[in-house]
Design a protein that fits this description.
Neuraminidase; 4-stranded antiparallel sheet; 5-stranded mixed sheet; 287 residues; mainly beta; 3 helices; single chain
Length: 287
């Protein structure tokens, strides 16, 4: 009687699978990278030394703004010359500026008390002409630090960050970072989690910058990686969808669209390591 063909097939399948079974399991980051969409590349347009800009950059039609923890500096786009500045005292109410954007001669800044606890945040508004504060809105204690906030289609859209480091409420970590839609009174209407392929790039930090793009997609950055992550609201569920990744000359942190540029695909961000403000053109996404 010959060998059982079923047994022979089973032994063959086990033998083929053995090398795979011996491989160590992939790390969470490796799994996320395997699942991540392909990468596009931005084009650098210019950079300027701005030592104070260790958190973010903002921009309007004629000037760009370097943002530090308690400092804002204003430079002409035409030649990079500094023409204005505001600085808060070390023991003052301003602790940690994050992202900012310009609208109607107002620079609107996300602010938090990071790394203090309990976590609390506010919106701080400055006149871009005088470089003086003109409005403040306390958001009080919330789950996470406000890292960026923008107006879009009649709502506030904002990110509240949690970390795998100091400054996070005990018992929570960066997975609790969320992106939310808020009404004019800052009541939460909807919120979403970030996809694992993006969270895996944050290291011990979180999402530092973001805004809606001219194509209706959401663009965000982490803390250090020179990448821009393109997301969209999910068709179902609670996790944002990762559309693609764009390699950029800015190294994470917060940034802003230059909406004065035709086509609207130019951003100003920073190189924290080089203490520079950097302008880059973001490629259009394939259909």
């Amino acid at each position: 009687m010959g060998p059982d063909p079923t047994r022979r097939t089973l032994l063959r399948d086990v033998a083929l699978a053995a090398p795979l079974m011996a491989l160590p399991p992939l790390s969470a980051r490796a799994q996320a990278q395997q699942a991540a969409p392909p990468v596009l590349t931005a084009t650098e347009l210019g950079r300027w030394q701005v030592p104070e800009a260790n958190q973010a950059a903002a921009v309007d039609a004629t000037h760009f703004y370097g943002i530090g923890n308690r400092t804002i500096v204003k430079h002409r786009k035409s030649d990079g010359v500094r023409v204005g500045m505001w600085a808060g005292p070390a023991d003052g109410p301003i602790v940690h500026f994050n992202a900012g954007y310009v609208t109607q001669r107002r620079l609107v800044l996300a602010h938090s008390n990071f790394p203090q606890l309990p976590m609390a945040s506010s919106l701080e508004t400055f006149d871009t002409g005088t470089m003086q504060p003109v409005a403040t809105l306390s958001l009080g204690i919330r789950l996470g630090s406000l890292t960026w906030a923008v107006r879009h289609r009649g709502f506030w859209w904002a990110c509240f960050a949690n970390y795998n480091d100091a400054g996070t409420t005990p018992g929570f970590d960066q997975r609790w970072t969320y992106f939310g839609q808020f009404d004019d009174t800052w009541q939460l209407l909807q919120s979403w989690l970030f996809p694992p392929s993006v969270v895996a790039t944050w290291g011990r930090s979180s999402c530092s910058g973001g805004d809606w793009g001219p194509d209706g997609l959401l663009y965000v950055t982490g803390h250090d990686a020179p990448e821009l992550y393109v997301l969209r609201l999910p068709r179902q569920g609670v996790v944002l969808e990762h559309v693609t990744t764009i390699a950029t000359p800015i190294e994470g942190q917060a940034w802003a669209w230059d909406r004065s540029v035709r086509g609207g695909r130019v951003i100003y961000g920073i190189s924290r390591r080089q203490r520079e403000v950097v302008a880059a053109r973001i490629p259009a996404l394939p259909a």
